[in-house]
Amino acid sequence: MGLRLKFNLVLLVVFAFGLGVTAYLSWTLLQRNAREEVVRHAGLMMEAALAIRAYTVDQVRPQLDLQLMRVFLPQSVPAYAATETLTQIKKKYADYSYKEATLNPTNPRNRATDWEADLVQEFKNRSGLTELIGERDTPTGRSLYIARPIKITNPACLPCHTTPEAAPPTMIKYYGSNNGFGWKLNDIIGAQVVSVPTAVPFANAERAFFTFIGSLATVFGVVFVVLNVMLSQMIVKPIASMSRAADQVSTGNFEIQEFAEKGKDEIAVLGKAFNRMRRSLQKALQMIEG
Q1: Among 103-107, 124-128, 283-287, whose mean pLDDT is lowest?
Q2: How distant, in Å, are the alpha carbons of 168, 241, 242, 261 from that of 248?
Q3: Residue 242, class by beta-carbon neighbours within 10 Å (0-12 exposed, 13-18 middle, 19+ buried)?
Q4: What is the pLDDT averaged over residues 19-25?
Q5: Rounded to the nearest 10 degrees, how much is the dihedral formed by the CA atoms of 108, 114, 118, 121?
């Protein structure tokens, strides 16, 4: 096995190991960053919904108290305001969604689906749980969700949701008396659920990964060629030449040309030593023959 082959085998093994470790670490890091980006987007939507709810309660509803005595305005309900506002986002970003999924909602569109009902039940079973983050498959692809419990902590909410008799007549006229009642203080009646698609961030992460690995492989290819050229010109060729010269000298042929004694590297030092050995051997043979 030649020197060049040994060198290349070692270089390939080192590269394969380094590329494998780099690929694993970069893939893990990019996937984690992509998921964190999705969670951050979902968190922003959730905070936007909470801000809209707070704005509706603090600034919108007080301005409508007198009007609400004559006609029910769903726009004054925090959940309605948050849902309607974030639905505008869905018009441009169809895979983004926000829902106040409720087991027994006043507004039928808020009724929890099976998987949303499971989230609500999870919050009911674990009273200290404040947030759930998970992923699920949807018809449009993989989606990440953030869910937070909807808990009745404000007694002011109860008049509209205890019994139909206690609810404002204007609300009964608007929604009817069949749904949205029987709520109790400190009950968890639903969950705020934000869903965000994972396809784009993860596709970007995958593209960045292959670009990085491709670039790394290209750099290695260039380095591999450069090192082989240097190895050939600076080491393999001089050593091969010295090997042929040594073979000739060993048979008594001293007509070969001496090596150029330029430079201070190891090959140059070896060439100088070979020249001295050749001259010494030639003189020794001449003395014996004379």
Answers
A1: 283-287
A2: 114, 11, 10, 20
A3: middle
A4: 93
A5: 40
Q: Delineate the domains of the chain, giving CATH numbers in brackets.
A: 14-198 (no CATH), 206-289 (1.10.8.500)
Buried b (16+ CB within 10 A) or exposed e, 56-88: bbeebbeeeeeeeeeebbeebbbbbbbbebbee
Query: What per-residue confidence (pLDDT) applies to 237?
Result: 77
How large is the average pLDDT for residues 47-76? 85
Whether the per-residue pLDDT at 1 is higher than 70: the answer is no
Strand, helix or coil for residue 101: strand
Is 0.85 surpassed by the pTM of this model? no
- Pairing state of beta strands 132-138 and 141-151? antiparallel
C-alpha distances in Å from residue 66, one per residue of 52, 62, 72, 154: 22, 9, 11, 21
Tracing tokens 């010269």 back to the chain, one arrives at: 245
Length of the chain: 290
Residue 176 has pLDDT above 90, yes or no: no
Q: Mark out the alpha helices in the chain (DSSP H runs).
A: 3-55, 65-68, 78-92, 114-125, 169-175, 199-231, 237-250, 266-289
Residues 6+ apart with CB under 8 A from 45: 86, 89, 96, 98, 194, 196
Classify residue 283 by burial, with Cβ atoms within 10 Å: 0-12, 13-18, 19+.
Answer: exposed
